[in-house]
Amino acid sequence: MSEEIDNELPEEAELYEHYRITVDKGQEPIRIDKFLMDRIANATRTKIQSAIEAEAVLVNGKATKSSYKTRPLDLITISLAQPPREDVVVPENIPLNIVYEDDELLVVNKAPGMVVHPAYQNWSGTLVNALTYHFQNLPTSRNGEGRPGLVHRIDKDTSGLLVIAKTELSMAHLAKQFFEHSIERTYQAIVWGEPEPEAGTIHVNIGRSLKDRKVMTAFPEGDFGKDAITHYKVLQSYRYVSLVECKLETGRTHQIRAHMKYIGHPLFNDTTYGGDKILKGTTFSKYKQFVDNCFKMLPRQALHAKSLGFIHPITKKKLHFDSELPDDMKNLLEKWDHYVKYN
Q1: Could you say which of 33, 155, 157, 270 is catalytic?
Q2: What is the pTM of this model?
């Protein structure tokens, strides 16, 4: 604890819950910094106070002050930027949709709504929990941060293909391919409007918004962010929305979502990037009701990691995998197709 708590959390930190303490029913009121000193081994008062100032310590889900006096049944949590040293991932018997598997790797088709790896507020039900149940001794990445087999990831509400390494050699080989951008990845997205031109390349830096660190934004001047390249092509237009294919040349966080917003065509029902509002069409109540029904049909951003291609770490052969659009996206397109034909 004394080494784990720094003076402040990095702005881009992903938070990992280290401690969860419920105050006893009979506990007398006591300053929270002193209470935690008594509860956590090797914790210094200075470190605890620094963590409180950095809002790493929450009481009943809210930030607090060192002078706060604990009350019976208070729930105190401490979340830090780095994962717990023990980093125990609980195996869970969650079915996996395995597209391909051999001794070195497997390819899974992740369902929408599944978090890829455990993190703050999502400690169970993740892909990693499932992997640790179904496979033994998977290699870990990023200095053993408890992400067995993972060399890349996709957002919770994005569906599609992921490759998982089963050996240290495969982990290193696949990670190198991602680093060199030689992995072939194709996504399909439903976006608002009809992009013009119908095919093009978006080459604009992406970085964390200067106003909201949880959101990625485009920096066309190149003064912030990292180099990001997305090639897109309209596959089908439905007047108000379009089915678009996106090929990634780089792999920045939320790259497709931020790039499509930048060119004025956010992903359908993408709450983070403004796609959960009517951005194309009329103001008639009938149309508004139709779109609301569409949002309910697909309560997530309309994005699917459709294909994945890479060199096998051992055989050196090129492997390529493709997947169908999930039912929620297919059903949504059918609904839009019917609407534009008869309205």
Answers
A1: 155
A2: 0.73
